[in-house]
Amino acid sequence: MAGCAPCQTFSTYNQKATPDDKRWWLLLQFARLVKEISPELVTMENVPRLQDQDVFEKFLGALHDVKYHIHIETVNCEEYGIPQHRRRLVLLASKLGPIRLLSPGEFGAVRTTVRDAIADLPPLGAGETAETDPLHQASTLSGLNKKRIKASKPGGTWRDWQKTLIANCHKKKTGKTYPSVYGRMCWDEPAPTITTQFFGFGNGRFGHPEQDRAISLREGAILQSFPKDYKFVPPGSPIYKKVVGRLIGNAVPPRLGEVIGRSIMIHVERWTTTRREVRTGAEANAR
Fold first, then answer.
1. Is there a catalytic annotation at residue 7?
2. CA gap 281, 286 in Å, rounded
3. Which residues 6+ apart lie within 8 Å of 103 measured at CB?
4. What is the tens place of the pLDDT at every residue in 98-118?
5. Which residues of the chain are modeled with pLDDT < 70?
6. Fewest CB within a 10 Å sphere: which of 14, 148, 211, 271?
């Protein structure tokens, strides 16, 4: 059984979420389903901050009560070849025996960068769509944001701009702690965490490293480790940036899903073999 509570309520991006948020307690509903169905294997993925909450301890207690072996690990996705700074909490639980996540070396991961991931895509201007791929489309930019992105350098911040370009909110004391918005990515580093709003230049460090635009929907999907030809909508259907952006940003990176899946498969194979050997040995002794 694979499942989770929505991560937004536990995320550091959400400064207002509290136990009063109804989503907060969905993790206990997941625990209820695990108890009722009693699957041999359980997996969950969420943000690392979940570990600091009482609801997570209650969830773990529920799994311990029904005799699961539990493995918890905070994963740096870039170590598994995902071209993105993204830390995720992964839980594996098994009734077969002790279980763990494959290491990056066991998985055969190779670190990749923004350049490795998207440098070969056709260039775009703001507001343009590639003829060969409708998902390779970039949001439009206002005249002011065009000036801002031209003044931005990879890895820099809005603090590098001349004062006439700086947003009023960033001139206030409370706004000075958010330097990464209106930033460009760096070619030779992993991307920042891809959120549901990655297609907007002002929503984070989502400016293309050299082209004067935010990254496209396709580029965001690739940085999340989706295949380059993955289709999020049926052919010919309209593409709504907010809808597709939410699908991409909220996804478990497919490569992380593969790590989890392969870890489970190896675990099942090992414990199935062990049980078979034990059974065979017991039958031999009985004879």
1. yes
2. 9
3. none
4. 999 999 999 999 999 999 999
5. 7-23, 173-178, 277-287
6. 14
